[in-house]
Amino acid sequence: MLDSKMKSYPPLIDQCKSRLDPCHIPWSSYGGEGHIIAECQLPLIDLRALIGHGSESERHACEAAIVKASSDWGFFQVLNHGISQELLEEMRREQKKLFELPQEKKVGCRLLNNSYRWGTPTATSLKEFSWSEAFHIPLTNISEDGCFSEEFNSIRKVMEKVAIAMSDLARLLAGVLTETLGHKNGLFLDEGSCFLRLNRYPQCPFSQEIHGLVPHTDSDFLTILDQDQVGGLHLMKDSKWVSVKPNPKALVVNIGDLFQAWSNDVYKSVEHKVMANSKVQRYSMAYFLCPSCESMIGSCKEPSLYKKFTFGEYRQQVQQDVKKTGRKVGLPRFLL
């Protein structure tokens, strides 16, 4: 029997029990598919030359490193990215205050336009369950009337600054990736479809093998992640799970499904997950770069590996698959 003082907040244990009793299942059969063989250091790229502080040759070298990491790993880290550490730390302080609110307040009010969620309502087994809570916020909602009360003005102001800074960085990186493949016009991006996600992974008192976030790929062009130093992010490399070593000075960038389809598999959208920690909670914040729902995602060159689809069609298919099977299928649905 679990000590009531150890119960996770939000009530993740209660939600787990509604699927399977955690006291009577072999946990090793759930979170631990594939063994973690090593702690890896992601490619580390200094963006100083890219944001105007280097020679032309240094800028070209930086661009080449971004392209190589996006092709080989689908993940990389960036330093000197133009977003101040002070702003990121301020965002984390506000984020922690937000998650420390009483559960009924997070769930029951219209805070952040009802963007709060926890656990995995669609899960049919613990293998599909995410031990986490999050605010999933479209950028357009941050400045909407009614999205924040007077009580949350401080986090609103910080989020507006973070959204602008993350958007600038994401577009800079996307520009490198598109121009390298010969496209000067860039992508059809829409600020209204981009969003921030504030994550908290509470300590899991009865297992280190349950997912904080189930294995998945991101359904966007690219994602920028700011994480604390707890660790827990794992990615698939050479058909094996590896653990990503946190770097306190770097942001993590990963390629999403849309960039893989658009690049005709030159850039890789890599499966990744977060593992829960039995002793300490973990925080992260992610920015997702997306097009409008009507944007057509076609290949940048022929012959294409994928049939054309809109971002809206892609999201709808993902949601249908998750509802029916408990997992995301993603790009294989759109192969020719």
TrEMBL record:
Q: Keywords, A to Z?
A: Dioxygenase, Iron, Metal-binding, Oxidoreductase
- Give TM segment ranges: none
One Pfam family hit: 2OG-FeII_Oxy
Q: GO molecular function of the protein, one example?
A: metal ion binding
Could you provide one GO biological process annotation from this protein's UniProt record? gibberellin metabolic process
Which Enzyme Commission numbers does its entry carry? 1.14.11.13
Q: Does the keyword Plastid apply?
A: no
Q: Which domain of life is it from?
A: Eukaryota
Q: Which residues form the Fe2OG dioxygenase domain?
A: 190-291
Instruction: Spell out the InterPro entries in the cross-references.
Output: DIOX_N, IPNS-like_FE2OG_OXY, IPNS-like_sf, Iron_ascorbate_oxido_reductase, Oxoglu/Fe-dep_dioxygenase_dom
Catalytic activity line of the entry = gibberellin A1 + 2-oxoglutarate + O2 = gibberellin A8 + succinate + CO2
Q: What family does the Swiss-Prot or TrEMBL record give for this protein?
A: Belongs to the iron/ascorbate-dependent oxidoreductase family. GA2OX subfamily.
- The protein depicted here goes by the name gibberellin 2beta-dioxygenase
Q: Say which species the protein is native to.
A: Cinnamomum micranthum f. kanehirae
